[in-house]
Amino acid sequence: MPKLTEWAYPLAESLLAEPLPRRWRHCLGVAERARTIALVLDQDADLLEAAAVLHDIGYAPDLAKTGFHPLDGARYLRDAAGADERVINLVAHHSCAWMEAEARGMREELEGEFPRASAHLNDALCYCDMNTTPDGTPTNPIDRINEITGRYGPDSLIGKFIRRAEPEILACTHRVLERVAAAKRQPM
Q1: Contact 27, 12 (CB under 8 A)
Q2: Is residue 113 within 8 Å of residue 92, measured between CB atoms?
Q3: pLDDT digits (tens, 9 = 90+) for 155-177
Q4: Do you know which SMART domains this protein is assigned to (predicted)?
Q5: Burial 11-44 (b: 16+ CB within 10 A, else e)
Q6: Residue 27's domain spans which residues?
């Protein structure tokens, strides 16, 4: 059975590399973070990495329909790309998307179309996204949240959403790091 990543990387590249090269670098960095926590994911490592490289495709000019990138990306993956349902749901709900959907008046729409994936996978994707800069390099969630707030402005919808989501983003990061530390303590 082919790996999900063998399908996901070329698709994400085709949608992001040319029109949004910085966003493409970010997605590559998020996928790289996913590989660093593979030890706590077992058979879901490939799934997480595929979702990581695809998580921001909803920003692609040809896909941006609602202006809410998790929903636009998930709809494309479902309706046009024939993606694995688990990848679709991770993309739809990445990085506390339900909070942004609520701020946009789209929470019912998001949750009505796409069920949330398991908590540990949602945590893992949030960790990967919020520990990666827009240029794809490693960072920490505090600096990432500050960068997002600075880029969009503290009074913007995104600025307010990311500050509201901050406690959950930090909790996701903590839970993932706890799982990684516990896995490293396990004897081989």
Answers
A1: yes
A2: yes
A3: 999 999 999 999 999 999 999 99
A4: HDc
A5: bbeebbeeebeebbbbbbbbbbbbeebbebbeeb
A6: 4-185
